[in-house]
Amino acid sequence: VLRLLEAQLQDQRREHEEEMEALRNQMDLMQEELENQQQAFLQTLQLSPEVQVELGLQQEITRLTNENLDLKELLEKLEKNEKKLKKQLKIYMKKVQDFEASQTMVPVERRPHERNMQVAVQRKEKDFQGMLEYYKEDEPLLIRNLIT
Question: Residue 40 and residue 34: Cα distance in Å, rounded?
Answer without folding.
Answer: 10
